[in-house]
Design goal:
The complex is a heterodimer. By secondary structure, chain A is of the alpha/beta class. Chain A has six helices and seven strands. Chain B is of the alpha+beta class. Helix content of chain B is about 25%, strand content about 15%. The chains are: A alpha/beta, B alpha+beta.
């Protein structure tokens, strides 16, 4: 029997959730036996090459590329999981949600004291993804099946959730595992 | 007659005349979740987290006195889900960035989120534009985190009895204002009380953030309400 396939992505996140995933420490050995990684920064596979059982999403959506990747994950993953506060509620990047986008860009690229006066320009190359008006949690863009809160979610929570999803059993989330910080 | 007999989810309980359902249930080791309610303050009944059902009717348990023979429903699944939805609404209608909040771990709204296993709210986030008032010496008022429970309005007063916090405007624009002149005279003890009264991180004593490390905070290992239920399983 082939191993369950998992994929991961970091959208508008800080990779802290991926780091927390690696905090499973020596359990990384059984993990290698347990699953096969597909598209993920962990193995640097850039494109989906087969159907994936469990997709783990870190970070919310702050630009068009995030939305594209998230929709790609939804299309290719049977089960999609929002991992961490940014994926669930926008997190730190969403602090800009109460500031108009134009103001944010002008502050960063035109008015900040460290900007070279000769090169004041808001980046507008067509290769760049378009910034969204707000940072959106993943479940406001696509259907999300499970949520793992925390900043970051503890390695124990990620490990428990991954095992439960692979075995097809309900997640056993104790009080100590559910934290919003 | 000095004691009133009533039941919570079928469990026989005793109350003193005049006691509210929340108070009487607590005396009988039954936890009814509250947020705007604070022992010693006049009940406001504004958040409705404590909603119970009696004879098919919904009522705020923090304002409703117990009457003889009352059969209170407290943990019916639909009631619990309604409470959970109220908690979710409070999360989406403010800007609650738990990871960056000084009150995290000691926050009653967050603790209710944990107790009700809120993994993600069912409602879309509203991202309201709210302001911060740091214009008083000891206290910081961050309206992003305010849930309009009015505990500060009811509980924090100057020596002559005047209110230091007040609620202004109505509906979705309702906000808490702080009287700068009166607040400038707050003592250290009064400032701490104001912070402790606030269930969330909207009122903070300045320069005391993150004093208790993760793992030693109020709700890190102990669910809210566990003290009430101690010894009596649900």
């Amino acid at each position: 029997m082939s191993k369950p396939v998992i994929a991961t992505a970091s959208l508008a996140g800080c990779f802290g959730c991926h780091m927390s995933f690696l905090d499973i420490d020596e359990r990384i050995l059984p993990l290698v036996e347990l699953v096969e990684f597909n598209k993920s920064p962990i193995d640097d596979i850039k494109k989906f090459s087969k159907p994936v059982d469990v997709g783990l999403i870190e970070g919310g959506c702050c630009n068009s590329e995030n939305v594209h990747v998230l929709r790609d994950f939804r299309k290719n993953c049977k089960v999609l999981v929002s991992v961490g506060e940014c994926a669930i509620m926008g997190g730190l990047p969403a602090l800009r949600n109460s500031i108009p986008l134009r103001e944010c860009l002008e502050e960063a690229y035109l008015n900040a004291p460290t900007v070279d006066p000769a090169e004041r320009i808001i980046p507008n190359d067509e290769e760049l993804p378009i910034i969204l008006d707000k940072v959106y949690p993943c479940h406001e863009i696509v259907k999300i099946d499970h949520f793992l809160p925390g900043c970051p979610p503890s390695a124990d929570l990620i490990w428990e959730a991954l095992n439960a999803l692979i075995e097809g059993r309900p997640l056993h989330l104790t009080y100590d595992l559910i934290k919003f910080d | 007659m000095t004691e009133i007999r009533f039941t919570v989810d079928g469990r026989p309980c005793l109350a003193k005349p005049g006691q509210t359902i929340v108070e009487a249930a607590k005396a009988n080791g039954v936890y009814i979740p509250v947020l705007c309610h604070y022992e010693g303050l006049k009940p406001a009944g504004s958040c409705r987290i404590c909603t119970v059902r009696v004879a098919g009717r919904y009522m705020a348990a923090c304002t409703q006195p117990v009457t003889e023979g009352m059969a209170v429903e407290n943990t019916a699944p639909d009631l619990e889900d309604m409470r959970k939805s109220l908690i979710e609404m409070l999360f989406v209608e403010g800007n609650h960035f738990c990871p960056a909040c000084e009150k995290s771990g000691n926050c009653e709204l967050q603790a209710l989120g944990y107790r009700y296993r809120m993994l993600a709210p069912r409602f879309p986030y509203l991202w309201p534009v709210r302001t911060v008032d740091a214009g008083t010496p000891l206290v910081l008022l961050d309206r992003n985190r305010c849930v309009q429970c009015l505990r500060c309005v009811r509980g924090v007063r100057a020596k002559d009895g005047r209110k230091i916090f007040a609620s202004v405007r109505r509906g979705p624009r309702v906000a808490i204002e702080i009287d700068h002149k009166l607040a400038a005279k707050l003592t250290e003890e009064e400032a701490r009380r104001a912070m402790d009264l606030c269930p969330v991180g909207a009122i903070l004593r300045k320069e005391t953030g993150f004093v208790r490390p993760i793992g030693r905070r109020k709700f890190d290992h102990t669910p809210i309400g566990a003290d009430v239920e101690k010894g009596i399983g649900r």
